[in-house]
Structure formats: structure tokens, C-alpha cells
């Protein structure tokens, strides 16, 4: 019984040691890769957003007729 218990403890120690070494290597490799990527691959430069034309005021006679027609069609389509 004593021999079986010592074999179990040995197997547990080797298993836990293997997992510890693997996770340590994983952290080191991931950190190294992160540093290499940030050093050699620059971040993409964000483009300035294009200025969109401002919509016409509610009181102007611009596209109000078309806007009213579109809204009316949408209301009629989805009203039940």
C-alpha cells in the first residue's frame, strides 16, 4: 500500500510540474510575441471622418415631400 501511495504522489508531482512548466512557457511566449508584434507592426492610422452634409432644417422646402412620402409608405407597410 505504501508503494502505491508513493507512486501516486510521484505521478501527481510530475503532472503538476509539467502543467506549471507548460503554463510558464505559454505566458513567456505570449508576452514575447506581444512585444514583437507591437514593435514591428505599427497600428493602422485612423482616417479622418469625412464631413457629411447637414440635413436641411425642418421648415425648409428641400426634400420634405419625398421624406413625407417615404415615412407614409413605411407606416402603411408596417401598421397592422
UniProtKB/TrEMBL annotation:
<dbReference type="Pfam" id="PF04277">
    <property type="entry name" value="OAD_gamma"/>
</dbReference>
<keyword id="KW-0739">Sodium transport</keyword>
<dbReference type="GO" id="GO:0036376">
    <property type="term" value="P:sodium ion export across plasma membrane"/>
</dbReference>
<keyword id="KW-1278">Translocase</keyword>
<keyword id="KW-1003">Cell membrane</keyword>
<dbReference type="GO" id="GO:0008948">
    <property type="term" value="F:oxaloacetate decarboxylase activity"/>
</dbReference>
<comment type="similarity">
    <text>Belongs to the OadG family.</text>
</comment>
<keyword id="KW-0406">Ion transport</keyword>
<dbReference type="InterPro" id="IPR005899">
    <property type="entry name" value="Na_pump_deCOase"/>
</dbReference>
<dbReference type="GO" id="GO:0005886">
    <property type="term" value="C:plasma membrane"/>
</dbReference>
<comment type="function">
    <text>Catalyzes the decarboxylation of oxaloacetate coupled to Na(+) translocation.</text>
</comment>
<keyword id="KW-0812">Transmembrane</keyword>
<protein>
    <recommendedName>
        <fullName>Probable oxaloacetate decarboxylase gamma chain</fullName>
        <ecNumber>7.2.4.2</ecNumber>
    </recommendedName>
</protein>
<dbReference type="GO" id="GO:0015081">
    <property type="term" value="F:sodium ion transmembrane transporter activity"/>
</dbReference>
<keyword id="KW-0472">Membrane</keyword>
<comment type="subunit">
    <text>Heterotrimer of an alpha, a beta and a gamma subunit.</text>
</comment>
<keyword id="KW-1133">Transmembrane helix</keyword>
<keyword id="KW-0915">Sodium</keyword>
<keyword id="KW-0813">Transport</keyword>
<feature type="transmembrane region" description="Helical">
    <location>
        <begin position="12"/>
        <end position="30"/>
    </location>
</feature>
<dbReference type="InterPro" id="IPR023424">
    <property type="entry name" value="OadG"/>
</dbReference>
<dbReference type="GO" id="GO:0015451">
    <property type="term" value="F:decarboxylation-driven active transmembrane transporter activity"/>
</dbReference>
